[in-house]
Amino acid sequence: MTRERLYLYDTTLRDGQQTQGVQFSTAEKVRIARMLDDLGVDYIEGGWPGANPTDSAFFEAAPQTRARMTAFGMTKRAGRSAENDEVLAGVLNAGTPAVCLVGKTHDFHVTTALGITLDENITSIAQSVAHAVAQGREVLFDAEHFFDGWKADADYAFDCLKAAHDAGARWIVLCDTNGGTLPGEIGEITASVIARGIPGDVLGIHTHDDTGNAVAGSLAAVQAGARQVQGTLNGLGERCGNANLTTLIPTLALKEPFASRFDTGITDKALSGLTHVSRVLDDILNRVPLKSAPYVGASAFAHKAGLHASAILKDPTTYEHIVPETVGNARIIPMSNQAGQSNLRRRLAEAGLEVARDNPALPTILDEIKTREGQGYSYDTAQASFELVARRHLGQLPEFFKVKRYRVTVERRRDEKGRPISLSEAVVVLLVDGERKLSVSESLDAQGNDRGPVNALSRALAKDLGTYQRYIDDMRLVDFKVRITNGGTEAVTRVIIDSADGQGRRWSTVGVSPNIVDASFEALLDAIIWKLVRDGAE
Amino acid sequence: MTRERLYLYDTTLRDGQQTQGVQFSTAEKVRIARMLDDLGVDYIEGGWPGANPTDSAFFEAAPQTRARMTAFGMTKRAGRSAENDEVLAGVLNAGTPAVCLVGKTHDFHVTTALGITLDENITSIAQSVAHAVAQGREVLFDAEHFFDGWKADADYAFDCLKAAHDAGARWIVLCDTNGGTLPGEIGEITASVIARGIPGDVLGIHTHDDTGNAVAGSLAAVQAGARQVQGTLNGLGERCGNANLTTLIPTLALKEPFASRFDTGITDKALSGLTHVSRVLDDILNRVPLKSAPYVGASAFAHKAGLHASAILKDPTTYEHIVPETVGNARIIPMSNQAGQSNLRRRLAEAGLEVARDNPALPTILDEIKTREGQGYSYDTAQASFELVARRHLGQLPEFFKVKRYRVTVERRRDEKGRPISLSEAVVVLLVDGERKLSVSESLDAQGNDRGPVNALSRALAKDLGTYQRYIDDMRLVDFKVRITNGGTEAVTRVIIDSADGQGRRWSTVGVSPNIVDASFEALLDAIIWKLVRDGAE
């Protein structure tokens, strides 16, 4: 059976830039556009040329893509012709094959926000679309606040769509701009638009996540007949974000009733790179990936409940709705207090350690993990530290070096002008290949600002590892989490450190002590040792 | 018009604990249960008594709640009677008014995961429910994998429900355990169950967010007739999490077609505390609040796009689907500072500071709070530090003493037997009443164990405050949380310290610095100063 084509429109570079705290550089935009093209979306909305320098520069530097590069802008303002509107001209001058023009369809917005008459607005829509079509562009009309507009005055809202459609727009995009329309209503209104005469195969859907329903609203519109879905990678976007394409793409590709009915143009191979795409975007934006993200989150296939973990070992489909590898993700069975030896073997295998069922180290590893969890360690996320504990018992952990001692000093005083200044200093003494290595580091960064004692310690520790130095030069500390927890009856500090390296690996280690500096030191040490093991240092 | 009752069932303390990296202590469970009760949910599922020590301890320490406290467990195992199943006995022995028993309804799981016959499973369900009902409990039956089971064998899945219903279960909860069923199908299957004879007012819905549709699936089930909604605060839960009650509660209370049709029992006042509840839970778990969270996220009402921001100033309804204050959240308009003065006055009043509407300090306090939040401070829980910022601007904060300098040393070395030992030492120099006070403390506790640098610093700081010493003798540090966050473009450390005193007061203070010791020192100082203010020191 031939599947019907369903088009994907990505607005990460435009609506995604409205995320609080997100500001793309031109180079980042180019990199993301390439990634989107490799993923296989149909349209890439690159920005609003003329609205800000980055967007204008992007269109000048825009990469060649198979996807249709699209410039965003708004319909001409009232009181001037489409030809004489310099904002519209800026959009068309970007020279993209497609342009997406946003216009009002909600009477209240026409009169309140624009302050023009309802007829003037319809004229602006019709003339702007016709003008862009006359220049040979594929035109999309973004019907802003369409669902609210329909509820306020369905006739007027529909007339706006019809004006764009009659003027030659290829797509009419129904936007739930404020994100307040629930999926049921989105489906019903989309069906009504089709019933009134605008065919579903020119309709697009653009939702926001203000009620946590952006994905469901998009699916409801597709079920009602819309054939273009707009969204952003990782659900970036203003307020609560746009419909998350990272969630929608696998849902449309893998789940019924969509999978057998629609072809989104995303290949299986591209789909299996989805988790990577999601993580790379977070890396570009220096955001911590959301563990609980559907399909691509680090926890999306993590089975913590004891009952689930044991059933998963019998048959993964018992507690997984899709095969994690289809989206490039992986199953995780965290060590919890109920976990048994078979979980342990599975987890060791994931770390590349094949251990026979009757290996006598298995019960001792399990015991040590349990004892350590009782002391406050947590191995849910700190897989690298878990692996080191196991390797130690399996006799697969060389002693690369010895820590003889360290000392950290934190000082705060007033400078000659009476301003408080602080400074940390760390001394670490290691024994590497029988040689005593003394290293000292301060906590000052390139700008002369104090970055604190853990920073000083981390630098002193990584300063001179002798023969091993070359393995750790591309390492960096990317996250650092501290919490007070119970170790036996005493409160202890648990530090979890995330590290990354030049090969794109990211790993977590844990340290526990009543002394936060000690706990940090332990996690830092584990991070370095894991890296040496993985890189095959000897 | 009378609205129909829709029941809310919270499982934060049970399913929420399956979140990777989340491990509640008993005290935290008690605190969260109280918070849920204040919020006004109908049921609080406290855990699985007998499954682990924390859950058992919680039921022994469970607070008195208006909400029905519920113990979770599973139906009896095959081959023994309900009376002789010690797992079931453990659940009933917790003595809660309600019990929720999970059982299989999917033929594949009965034969593959349990390895028993289909009839044996139905007998287990019927007898377990009947046994709990006979003990006078309100019984909920959690129909695990119900939607997948229905798709595989609707007759068998229905027979499982019917067995529980006939045995006297008050609620039959339809669970989409693997989270793979889309909202459309959830609605259809729920309607089919009702059409087959189990009334909607005994049906509950329990969804997971593996396709990003947990909220939409819950809404679809309610529209189809289900009358109990299960979920967790902040969408905690295994894998991608459970249906997010923090999203569902305002949607059901404020959005149509739900708001005018259903009464969830949540008062307007409780609803206006929802953002606070969400943040406090994150604080307890030391998680970074999700900015883009619907309704309660810090970005949920942030208007970054220039067009949106200017329209918002004309009329907020142009780009907001609800009024942010209804859920205790606030509008954020970058470049505009007019939001929040009335919020600020309300918060000052809570701290006992009545400030007139036209007090010129109000805008400067607001500015400083916003500037500090930009630097990484967070005042959601650190009410005591917030109060000190305000008092400083209001001229209501005496300078009790001056900090001249401090120095902390952390050392780790090997003792004479080659064992690693660590020790911290802190020196603090204060100026009190014109007198220079030098204090030094070590980090060793009464047992001679190192408690770390913050402990040493805290003791040195509180060692000799001269005339103020008597005010702080009953103070102690009860919790200490550290998080890496962004301050401007740099990563900084945020420390939140909870202190308590002999009068039973508990207060939180915050410090921010790239240097964790500095950040801790700032929070410790605030804690002492707040105590001096509150106790009327002069």
TrEMBL record, chains A, B:
It catalyses: pyruvate + acetyl-CoA + H2O = (3R)-citramalate + CoA + H(+). Pathway: Amino-acid biosynthesis; L-isoleucine biosynthesis; 2-oxobutanoate from pyruvate: step 1/3. CDD domains: DRE_TIM_LeuA3 (cd07941). InterPro entries: 2-isopropylmalate_synth_dimer, AIPM/Hcit_synth_CS, Aldolase_TIM, Citramal_synthase, LeuA/HCS_post-cat, LeuA_allosteric_dom_sf, PYR_CT. One of its GO terms (molecular function) is 2-isopropylmalate synthase activity. Its EC number is 2.3.3.21. It comes from the Bacteria. GO terms for biological process: isoleucine biosynthetic process; L-leucine biosynthetic process. PROSITE patterns: AIPM_HOMOCIT_SYNTH_1, AIPM_HOMOCIT_SYNTH_2, PYR_CT. Residues 6-272 form the Pyruvate carboxyltransferase domain. The keyword Transferase applies. The keyword Magnesium does not apply. Keywords: Amino-acid biosynthesis, Branched-chain amino acid biosynthesis, Isoleucine biosynthesis, Transferase. It is an enzyme of class 2 (transferase). This is Citramalate synthase. It comes from Rhodovulum adriaticum.
